[in-house]
Design a protein that fits this description.
alpha/beta; Nucleotidyltransferase, domain 5; Helix Hairpins; 9 helices; elongated; disordered C terminus
Length: 271
């Protein structure tokens, strides 16, 4: 038997506006639809919460459209039972599509228990996920900069990437700085290798023989500055993520026991 909600609402959320349809019992029988459009500024969303509270709304449904649902969800989740639904799972009412009819359709589907809510983790988990996602974006952007460094080296006939796994690792960085400084002796630059890469000094000397021009050095210098900035940012994210993980220390320890799953040390400095 499906649950029937007697006081519910559907929200059709957009960037600048949110259309709310409140569905409540009519004293004379049947159901009463009340619809109102609110802007999406915080003060207006608080007014939306007041409007819904005055009508004794208990359950609210809204579609997960882009990022626009987040401000609305943040304001309303403390007072109402929120159902965030996948737009692909909601069949629009037949006929001309309007924001008002979409909000009404959501309210009617919610009233009869026909909506399947998406999983929304608690606030601390959402904050942690947000931090991790932003860190991942910075890591990807850093990788893009590393690829640009490789392209500049190739344009200068430097084949460092053919010998060193990571041109921006410890050894690669020392050689790049030597190139930027104008060191033209490939053998001397090869001696800057550390760790296992020292066994490839002869190959490195050949790879570092190139045709580096002043504009190559300038571009490499600027790219390395950008990479350093990203490294600092990623380090700060690692610290913030570590703090956010403290409440989940036991869960993190258990996850760490899974083969193939491990902690990130915040860096990937290969020789």
């Amino acid at each position: 038997m499906r649950v029937v909600y007697t006081h519910c609402a559907g929200l059709d959320v957009h960037k600048r506006t949110v259309v709310a349809c409140c569905l409540t019992p009519d004293p004379q029988g049947g159901w009463r639809h009340e619809t109102r459009t609110f802007p999406t500024m915080t003060v207006d969303l608080l007014a939306l919460a007041d409007w819904l509270r005055e009508r004794d709304v208990t359950h609210i449904a809204l579609e997960s459209t882009g990022e626009y649902w987040r401000p609305v969800f943040n304001i309303l989740e403390a007072e109402f039972e929120m159902l965030l639904v996948n737009a692909a799972h909601v069949k629009n009412v037949p006929g001309r599509k309007t924001d008002v009819r979409d909000a009404q359709w959501l309210a009617e589907l919610l009233q009869h228990g026909l909506l399947r809510a998406s999983f929304i983790p608690p606030v601390p988990v959402r904050e942690l996920r947000d931090l991790v996602r932003h860190r991942s974006n910075f890591v990807r952007e850093r990788a893009t900069l590393t690829n640009r460094v490789q392209k500049v080296l190739e344009a200068a006939n430097i084949k460092l990437a053919s010998v060193a796994t990571d041109v921006c690792g410890v050894s690669g960085r020392r050689m790049l700085e030597a190139i930027i400084a104008g060191d033209a002796d490939p053998a001397a630059m090869a001696e800057l290798a550390r760790g296992r890469l020292r066994t490839k000094r002869d190959e490195l000397a050949k790879a570092l023989e190139g045709r580096v021009r002043p504009h190559h050095r300038f571009v490499l210098s600027e790219l390395l500055c950008q990479i350093d900035s990203f490294d600092e940012t990623i380090t700060r994210f690692d610290e913030q993520i570590g703090e956010a993980c403290r409440p989940f220390a036991c869960a993190v320890e258990r996850l760490d026991t899974i083969p193939g799953v491990g902690r990130s040390d915040g860096g990937d400095d290969r020789l």
